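User: Hi! I'm working on a homework problem where we have to compare a predicted structure to a textbook description. Could you give me the structure for the chain below?
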Amino acid sequence: MDDQMLLTYAQQLGKALAERGFMLASAESCTGGWIGQAVTAVTGSSAWYDRGFVTYSNHAKQQMLGVQSATLTQYGAVSEQTAQEMAAGAIKMSDAQLAVAVTGVAGPTGGSEEKPVGMVCFAWASRQGFAHSKTHFFSGNREAVRRQAVGTALQGILKLLKDIPPSLA
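Assistant: Happy to help. Predicted structure tokens:
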């Protein structure tokens, strides 16, 4: 996935959000703000991107997004459960109708047998209660894993938008 593809996804997302009058928030760990960078590369994104939370540490996830310490203890920072709480927190702490959350192991260190390098957990949520989470296993170096994660995050928001009935726009 290259920069042009990320820009294309961000442009499609901006158009779809603007058509609904929706705002987006992002909650990022392993991508370190790259989702925010990708969407703000689109001219006019202030009309549909509310804010981004870069919560690399567990403390930041708890403090900024309300991730429960019990969740982090039981499932770890790299888990769909944590990603779900990050997305819910981004909705709660913003004016956005949609949120995406990403947490993972970008490498080259930090992986384990249970959570290998390239494992990235995603969650997408809407203020209306639509939610979805998924774990992907990407290959490549740190930048490649992060780039694939950003693309997957953007594609997931587009999918979530298609799943929300137009009557809720």
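For your comparison, note the following. The domain at 3-163 is CATH 3.90.950.20 (Maf protein). The first strand starts at residue 24 and ends at 28. Good luck with the assignment!
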